Amino acid sequence: MGVKGSRSTPWPHLPRFVIMNTEDWSYGIDPGDLPQACPDCLRPFWPIRQPTTLEAFGVSLIAPGEHPLAGLSTDLYFPSLPDLFGHLRRTPPDYIEIFRGRTVDLREARNTLPESLPLTYHGDCLWYTQPDYATRPAFREEERRAIRHMDALNSPWMIHECAQKSMAGFDFGLYAPPLLTMEGARAAREGALSLARALGDRLLLVETPPFPPHPPGDIDLASFFDILVKDSPLAIGLDLGHCLTYLAASGHPIDIETALEWLDSFPLERVVEIHTGGMHFLPLDGSSWPVDDHAFPLPDLLFDLLEKLLSRLSLPSLQGVALEVDNKEAGNAAREFLRFREIVRAHSRPGGTPLPSPTGSSPLLTDYPRHLVREQYAHLARALSGAIPSPYSRHLYDSEIWEFGGNMSELFPETLSILSLSGIDVRQSFVEFFNRVPHESSPGQDFLEIKIRRTAEWLDNLSTTGHALHPSLRAVHQREADLLLHAQHLYNGDPNET
Ligand SMILES: [Fe+2]
Description:
Blueprint: E1 36-37, E2 44-45, E3 69-74, H1 81-86, E4 95-99, H2 103-112, E5 119-122, H3 137-153, E6 157-161, E7 164-167, E8 170-176, H4 182-198, E9 203-207, H5 221-229, E10 235-239, H6 240-249, H7 256-264, E11 271-277, E12 279-284, E13 287-292, H8 300-312, E14 320-324, H9 330-347, H10 370-387, H11 391-395, H12 397-403, H13 408-411, H14 413-421, H15 426-434, H16 447-464, H17 473-492
Parallel strand pairs: 3-4, 3-14, 4-5, 5-6, 6-9, 9-10, 10-11, 11-14
Antiparallel strand pairs: 1-2, 7-8, 12-13
Bound molecules: fe (ii) ion (FE2).
Fe (ii) ion (FE2) binds at residues 207, 239, 275, 277, 324.
């Protein structure tokens, strides 16, 4: 939530992936780099690790006892992969994590990049936190799409935020946090186990989500994750920046020692991947709030926290540590990766231990009052939309609805100008309408498509609540909506294959 790197494609959704010239990219050992020695075990390691084929270790990136890899997490569109790798010749990543995109583009990425470079998949739109996840057919369709994407990349796993952009019929542009209650944790566990079963042999990494500056809920995030993964096949993706946003939202000071103490209570034994991404601090209501935003540089605080976490706490199953650089200018991403890679190489300890298999001795923990969780999610959505005052609902919600996925002023310039001439405060009116009542959307729908549909419903609502709309308004709106939907399908369509 807030102004963070949500990986939801901004508008316009250009450019698409461009074929890169692999001859220009020398993946492998750079003679200018010298081997380094691990300060813990004195084992020499090479500046760029010898690539490991996935076939060698099944669904793992590394063999047990190897050091975790230093990777980059990005999307296919900005920065473009060719641009990014043009800047990474001397410091290539050990693996790349790629965010959900069109199947055709993911295949092209896999075919274009060196075969020996492992690619992993960052999923989206699989809202397993929701109590209807296991039973709603639309999620089965999204699971098939995700499996197709992982096949395209030959990815050993999927990482996916334990969060949602849609809940109980309310929609948001960015990830909204999960319900931090006992029932919410059990609902997420049920959904995640259902998703993990659908993935077959591939691992599901449930990722610590970002939190907006808003009261986060009744139970601690570490306890929530404990319930979520306990005695299950689920792995964890630990996003350090997201953890800082949780600590801030729950009233903790933002410093290294507090973060490490909290992490010590977290189920670190199931962490398979760590994320760090850019961050900035936003002054709101007299406090400074960390905001996860990958376009920003990584603050020293996150570099230092990563170093201390790797060197002080036990992470036996860790396989990869990824710097998230989506939305970052390629040259800056490459400079940041150099420092990041040095920290991972110097401070990580051997990992890769397979996760313990479920013993079946713990109760399934998936028995919960479904209606109550749905009601709690509706309550959370209304709270975020303004029913409960918080720095987020007061200062950030409005721009998320109006601007994210496409600024309304640019999407519907003529429609809004006709409405403004009749005296309507279009921004206030649309934002107030957007989540006033529940409205169903399908999980794979882009926020832009949801906004287009809600705009038509908003006009209907205006006309039935006493506003005399200009006679040409409907035709103007239809023309603008048709153009947007045509472009959306042309550039971002990803039809399911049979
Ligand atoms: Fe992340």
